[in-house]
Structure formats: structure tokens, C-alpha cells
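seq/struct pair 1
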Amino acid sequence: MRHVPSSLVGVGLYTPAEAGRLVQVPAGKITRWLRGHDLKGRYYEPLWEPLVDLGDDGIFLGFRDLMEVRVAAAFIAKGLSPQKVRRAIILAREIIDDERPLSTTRFRTDGRSVFLQVAEENGTAKLIDLFKQQYAFREIVERSLKNIDFDDAGTPARWWPLGRTAAIVIDPSRSFGAPIERDSAVPTEVLASAARAEGSVERAALAWQVPVRSVRRAVAFEAELRRRKAA
């Protein structure tokens, strides 16, 4: 089991594989976005600097990085190149004054002011307004920030990945940001594994001294992640 520094309490800690499992983005792509990469003799800068730095142990994400990846991935899925997303982040930082602006409520409300330099035409930079283009960027941001609880500063505090009714929450102040079942506060992977090992949700609930519904929720959540990955 990986040792987690106490300084990361409230920050969250995810490998690219763990983050990818939660946000449905390939781990290799997340690594390239956060580390930078070479392609055909050209170096592409990272989209942003990861919140977590564990030295030479590799790339790790904090909870805020996880939320940024969701919005960045939605932009890229709609045709915006990673480097254009990077330029948008740089511009948004200046407007919003936040190192990870895409996942803030201010980006949702003030993002209309963010312009992107998308091309050079006859030596003149061409600018587009993110939220007036055919890609419906405002809708992307709204959808990406759905089911997130924000703190008073407008930054993400908790994420309900399947909605609040599913009762599974990702909270960086609890279990280092692992998905947990709301009522029991036990990580979903733990309860789902217990159900497999015990042969039933009822025996798993008894072993962990949690309500049966807590195990059922955890099992359903883990099954949904597997289904989405296979889709």
C-alpha cells in the first residue's frame, strides 16, 4: 500500500490510473497533460502543474486536478486541442486569479471573458470567445461542474460522481479523496471487495458493521465504473 503523507489530508491523492478510473479519461492521456510530452520533434508543455509533488515517485493528482481534468477532457472531446485548452487556462488564471480555474464557479460565471488565440492569419492572432462558438463551451462547463459542492471561495470541495441520490461522495478531506459511501464513510472499493469475498452484501455488511444499503451502493458504484470503462 502506498504511504500517503499527512500533508495531503484535505488535498486528495490519485495516480493517473486512479484518476482515469473516476473521470473516464485514459491514464496515459492524463500523464501527458500533466507532464508534457514530445511528438514528432515538438515538445508540448503540460496543461498545468499538478497539485501534488512527491518528488521522483511519478505523476500524482490532487482533488482539484481531478476536477480540472473533467472540464479539460470535455473541452478536448468537443474538438479543442490540448494546447488551446492550455492557453485558455493561462488566460483564465489572469481573470479568475486561481491556478486551476476551469473547475471554479468563477470560471462558470466569468468565463465569458476568456478568449483563445486559435490561429495566426497573415501574422495577426485570431481570437475567439469560448462561449460564443459552436462547441457550446458554457454548456460543457455547466455539465462538468454538476454534482459538485463548492466552498465559500467557489472552489470544489466534494464531488458526487453519480449524483447525490447514489450516496457516493469523493471528498479530499476523507479517505484521501477515495470514493466513499456517504452513510458509512467506508471506501467503495473496500465494501465491494468485501461483498465479493463474503459472497453476499448482507455478510459484508455484518463484517463491516454497516447498513446493507451501504454495501449495495458501493457495489453498484464500482459496477458502474467498470461498465463505463468497458463502454
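seq/struct pair 2
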Amino acid sequence: MKRYTIAAAALTAAASTATAGGLDRSYTAIDALFETGNYAEVSLGFTSPDVTGSDLGFPGLFAPNAISNVADSYFTAGAALKIDFNEKLSMALIYDQPYGADTLYGGNPGTTLLGGTKAEVDSHGLTALVRLQVADRWSVYGGPRFVNAEGEITLSGRAYGLASGSNFRFASTTGTGYVVGGAYEVPEIALRASLTYHSPVDLSMSTTESIGGGPAVATTTSTKTPESWELAVQSGINQNTLVFGSVRYAKWDSFTLTPPTFGTNLASLDDVTTWELGVARRFSDKFSGSIAVSYEDTSGDDLVSPLGPTNGQTGITVGGKYAINDQLDLSGGVRYTMLGNGIPQTANTARGSFRDNNAISVGMKLGYSF
């Protein structure tokens, strides 16, 4: 069953998530920690979203305008190294790009509600976990998590009134949090249930604010990433088949990004719950495949930030894994995501509508046991 335990985790992670709730991109998976023996992996994903809609216009001034694709394509990279010290103690170093945004509205700011509005967010994460086998089937794990983030936001268009043309640059900064969790395993049937908590990470970001196109002012913006919980379960149902599922909750409504001079939160987001259910099957000694369905729900109504104008999603991921030899595995996957409808708003007033959008993601992962 060891081969399947690896395959299911790798294939669902291989195709990176499309514009997920909040700013999530990687979900900071910890699957490498459960690999048998010493292990290393590298992964690369690519997502191409199609997020189009229309603004509502302004009666007596200008008609509604079509909004072409506001979401840019992006790559995500990941890597992990897991080392066994002895039968009870192991550790893993995990690199990911946990959060991101690439949003840009076309159109003339003078004749559209959101033309020129944009958001760019980049991040890097490094998690160091130590795992201790405390009983025959029970283990606990935990360690520090470091997150580096930077970004730029521009508010533009008639929906922002006098604030149109405001620009905010957030310099690269690093904060520290932690990860803790526990797992129950029955290796004979490839059963594993794990519960993992990611703490918030506090960030103090040097900020350059330009309000309404005015002079730049240097300030500092304090924020923190959302805390999250994830329950993941997998089990073999026969020698060649494994089922797996998970539920993850991220508390995005506590996330704020409020430059002190501007004094208004730039990122009003809802909490997100993500469900996944899948099955993996071995077709030969070298090849296995998996299919998974995911559903993401957000609390609150359909009003969303213009910087992320979708609300929830449903996705399907199909993947495969090939054992090149006893040490080297190559896995890959394709994910199609149907993005939920959203209504971008400013000042709690609807400014547009985004419907029937989607994204396609592809990913590959190379794993090496040593």
C-alpha cells in the first residue's frame, strides 16, 4: 500500500489550485512528512484562469461595460526534503508559494467603474517540521513556518470616487508562525488520519502610499496571514485501490490590509472551507492514477472584493504517477475548476457581475527516495 499512499497525495497536489478562496494557492501541504525513509521532491504547477464579467455602469453617465479577463496566468513551485533520524524521529523542510494574486482590470478609469484596478501579491513559505512517533500508530508533529510576502495594489475607476488612482506598494517582509498536528496510521491498510493547524503569521510591511494619485508617503502596514485547520483521511479498500478525502478551513475574514494613511481595509475576504474526495488505483507495478473532486465554499453573500471577483469553486483533478525505478517517481495532473459567481463591490455597493468562469491547471512532481 505504500506506493498508493504516495500516489494519492502527489497527484492531488500536482495540479496547483486555481484562484482559490482568499489568496490561497498551495494550501501548504505536508504530505512529504509521511513518506517512508529519506525522500526529496520538486514540483511545478501552471494555472490559466478565465475570469470575465461586466460592470454595472452608472445611470445617466455611462452604460455597462464588458470586463475582459482580469486574472493573469501564473506558475507555482514547491520542494520538500524529509529525513529519518531513527524509527521514531524524523523531520521535513517544505518550500511553497502559499499566497498570491495577479488581477488587472482593463478599461478607461474615467468611463468604467473599475478600469485600471490591479493587485499583485507574491509570497514564499518555508516550513520546518519534526515528527515524533509517540505510540505504535500515533505521531505528533510541529515546527516553525516562515512566510515572506510583497505586493502592490491600485484602486482605479469611478467606483472609487476621489480615491481613484490610489497606489499602495508593500515591500518584501518575512514573518514567523508555527504548524502543529497529529496523525493516526495503520500501515497494513494504508490508513492515515491527520489533523493539522497553521497559525497566523504576523507581517509588518514597509508601505508606500499614494492617495488619489497624490504624493507618496512612507508608512508601515501591519497584517497577518489567516490561521487554518485541515483534516485529511485516506485508506486502502483493497490491494490496488485507495480512497482519500480532506476538509480545510481558512479564517480569511480576520485578514486585513489597511495602510495607515488611507485608513481603509483593501482586502475584505470571507472565510473559506475546502472539501476534497478522491480515489487512486494501481494499474501496474509502475503506473497508478487518481481522480479527485473538490468543492470550496465561502461564508457571507456573493459580494466580493474587486481584487478577487469569484466566490467559491468546484474542481476535478485527474492525475497519474509513473515509477521510473525503485527510487525515482514522476507524477502529473490536470485540474479543471469552475469558479463561483461573484459580485465585485466597493463601499458595500455592487459594481459588476462575474459569472460562468473557469481555470485550467497542470502540474508535475518529481520524487526521489534515498
